[in-house]
Design goal:
The structure is a single chain. The chain is α/β, with parallel strands linked by helices. A hairpin with a 2-residue loop joins strand 6 and strand 7. The termini are far apart.
């Protein structure tokens, strides 16, 4: 058999660890209670993944898997250590971190929740507080309008409601 088809080549491949969502330098790592819980859940899942790798993988595969898990765990632990939990404000109609905002535009009604970078998921309407849209919404109140510049052109948004969930 040619060396090209042996498992030894796998050990020579560089270890690729998917990066965490970027947090700009000097920006606090704000998290919601739900976001912090998700980070801890992810850490617990990595512990289970590590146990599975230790029990079920052959030595060569296990070594690479454990290295990848260790790198992911280190990045996650660093993110958790830097997390600053932001509690939702009481009786506030201003858009702040943790707000769920309903906006109206020419294209319809949309809802966004302003969350930490690790919790952001644009497909589910969760936007990172450092995103351009979140920065445009922060500090605004119900009834305020703003112009959002997009590659497809400007869009006017009107804030219809602001709410905070207590968790």
């Amino acid at each position: 058999m040619s060396k090209a088809f042996t498992r030894e080549d796998d050990a020579e491949l560089p270890l690729i660890i998917p990066p965490r969502a970027p947090l700009p330098d000097g920006v606090p790592n704000y998290v919601t209670a739900h976001g912090l819980a998700e980070l801890h859940r992810e850490l617990a899942e990595l512990a289970v993944e590590r146990e599975d790798a230790e029990r079920h993988l052959d030595e060569a595969t296990r070594t690479r898997a454990l290295a990848a898990i260790s790198a992911r765990r280190a990045a996650l632990e660093s993110r958790i250590a830097s997390a600053e939990l932001v509690s939702p404000p009481h009786d506030c109609d201003e858009v702040r971190f943790g707000a769920t905002v309903v906006v109206e535009s020419e294209t319809g009604t949309r809802q966004y929740s302003i969350v930490g970078v690790d919790e952001a998921d644009a497909a589910r309407g969760k936007i990172a507080f450092v995103s351009p849209l979140a920065r445009a919404l922060l500090g605004r109140s119900v009834g305020d309008t703003l112009e959002l510049r997009k590659p497809s052109g400007a869009e006017t948004l009107t804030i219809e409601s602001v709410r905070y969930e207590s968790r």
